[in-house]
Amino acid sequence: MPKELRLDELMREVADRLHEIMHTRDALKSLLDAVVAIGTGLDLDATLQRIVRVATELVDARYGALGVLNPDGNGLSEFVFEGITQQEREQLGNPPEGHGLVGLLIKDPKPMRLKDLTKHPASVGFPPGHPPMYSFLGVPIRVRDEVFGNLYLTEKRGGSEFTDDDEAIIQALASAAGVAIENARLFAQARDQARWLSASARVNAQLLGGASENESLTSICRLVLDLASACCVAVLLEDPADVDSLVVRAAAGQDAEGIEGTMLPKKTPVVAEVLASGAPQLTDELGKYLPDDLALPAGLAGPAAVVAILISAQANGVLLAGRQKGAETFSRDQVQV
Question: Which residues form the GAF domain (predicted)?
Fold first, then answer.
């Protein structure tokens, strides 16, 4: 009888091991399929959405999201959802900016797995209408050793919590996602550079054809407006009559009419840094640095890229590309182009 019992135990153990092996094999196949899926396209927005979708499928999560860090690395510039409808998204209001558990992963980008996120000290609760969420798995996504953003997964189906295997699988997916994101960014850069070269050739042709300075600068503003998906673009150059100020020489975009001749002090934060260093700067809200009495368009009040205009290796002005408050921030890739 003891021998029969021992044989039964061995058979159960073998069966359990076979089940684990089959589960591991299925998980690896699913992971490989997911890696192939996220690498099938070169559009960055579509790639981010695919990453979130396959992540939820891999670990059987009801909800998923990918938060993209802003240029300063202290908050989020984009939040891609999976598991809720467009109507539900709109009812929730503004997407997370980087507080609570979201902010904790931004400050300390390491994998985090929780049975009940509502009991974590960093939890700040949910806005009205937000679906209930308890089990949580968060993993950073790195692109060339730089944190690009974080994957957030919640509500493992069946009411259970995420496992060690789930965490390992999502970490592996995050590594592949970093490669896919980098490829999509490189493709976007190459596309934008080609568009810039083509447009620059048209501007050069205008100059050779006898176009005025204002016409040429306005053409450049329109070009940047299109390439950077900006709301408003302005070129400011040194004012011969006031060495402490820059003057708007050309502008294009939202409410741009009538701002030519507007003066901006050189000491304005961000602008002063660009003039001193010659290096471009990004800000999530240009308006907070501008003088209260300065009448610039709303399209320059929000996220902005400030780029030096170099004449004889000296920064003699700046190009401002802006968006309205609350809009998505510019990327460093866009600034490089």
Answer: 43-191
